[in-house]
Amino acid sequence: MAFDGFLTKAIIEELKPHLIGGKVNKVFEPTKNDIVISLYNSGNNYALSLSANPETCRIGLTTYSKPNPQVAPNFCMLLRKYLIGAKLIDISNMDLERTVQLKFEAYNELNDLVVRKLFVEIMSRQSNIILTNEDNVIIDTLKHVDSSSRELLPAHEFEFTPINKQSFIELDSSTSLFEIVNGEALSKSIPNNFIGFSKPFILYSLETLGISDEGYSASDVERFFDYVKEVISSFGTNKVSCVKFENGYTLALKENNEPLNINFFIDDFYFSKEKSNNFISSRNNLLKIISGNLKKVSKKLQNINSKLQECANMDIYKLYGELLTANLYKFKGAPNVSEVELENYYDNNELIKIPLDKSISIHKNIDKYFKKYNKLKNALTIVSEQKIEAEKELDYIQSIVFSLENAQTLSDINEVFEEISENVVTAKEVAKKTKNKQSKKKAKSEEFTFEPIEIYGYQVYIGKNNIQNDYLSLKFADKNDYWFHTQKIHGSHIILRTNGNTDVPDEVLTKCAKLAKQNSKASNSSNVPVDYCLVRYVKKASGAKPRNGDLYKL
To answer: How far, in Å, CA of 417 to CA of 423, rounded?
Structure first.
């Protein structure tokens, strides 16, 4: 990202006319890295967000609310104690550095007017929020730091992070700049030598000016110098704005008459980024849990198949026992041997070799074979039932994986989370491992909203996961609507609204079948069978879990 010194300065200058003089109403700490301060000024309420998150560190106003913990963390309680009721009297930073100072006036316990400072360090992994007194003695910090290079602890003096770079603001001419960069790429040499620059800001500025990053002249450096100086002099006016650049954003000389446009651009950008990160994190957490279950059930099914393979040979043990019993008279007085050859009267008296345990008598060998036969016979019944259940379990987990892989919003993830939280296959793992903080309230069918796709005037609805599929097919659809689903392949339920007229053109049915294929696990296959019928003929198997279609009776 490009939250550099230029953006920090621009946001500060934008905030000053709106926040200075404002009174602190509330303080929140929605996450371990974020503080939100509510200020009231001139009839308006503002929410100032301070983030020390390594990936999204920033300062600025926000219009998006976040859920707060039921019990406020210690640092939040401390800020409430020292800042609620305080008046913000200044917002500043040094040069183009990314350490912002918020200065407050408040009354202490003795009713004396005192100054307290809140420093916000916007420095990736080293980002922090520090509360100090007027003399910069630390009261407390969001993150305690105790290292050989720096100490940020209560009762210690707060010191700015030393920066061994030059000030571009104090640079007097483009000639000096040309000598400093000395032919090196501007996007590399300028951030290495000057405070506050980021690579995206430099690259965007060069692109705007039509200057090469490496093959530049003295006049090019002069134009760049003048452009940057104009950006700095325009802070606090409507001449500078935030613009999208590459995968992020940067500051540019671009007029914008919307109040606080830079603040709210950044607010929208990071809200979208955090929403995307939360979605990916939530989905990956659930996929990790489900993948673990998938491995367990697959291994269980593998063991069951091995047992069934052993049971397939049980009749041979019965045969051995019967043949030995029928020829028992031949072994009277004979020594114990490890193998005998007998006629198999079930197979035209063909000779068959029967292995024996020579350490025990022939009678005990017979008992041993019959016991093994009976054991495998009983096991076959049990293991066969286990296989059916394991296959159902495996099929269901695969349907969950399909739902997660095709989820598009955090709401979709929440629905899958709610479903598997109540499922015996995954409930323990979800409760134990997931850090997902979605509501565990059961999704109500009436809360579902579906955006239909229109095909030749017909409305078509697509389920995104098992719960939606159930709702679409069993509650939402009319008995005269059409139902589509890929045959024996996990996928979405497709409902075609007929409004009572079941005489639907073939091209509409064909397009719906294609939609079923596109929204299935076989979306990349060339030849996929699709089942379709009127909804009246679709029934869910009794006691079945929410499914992608395989347990529905046609």
So the answer is: 10
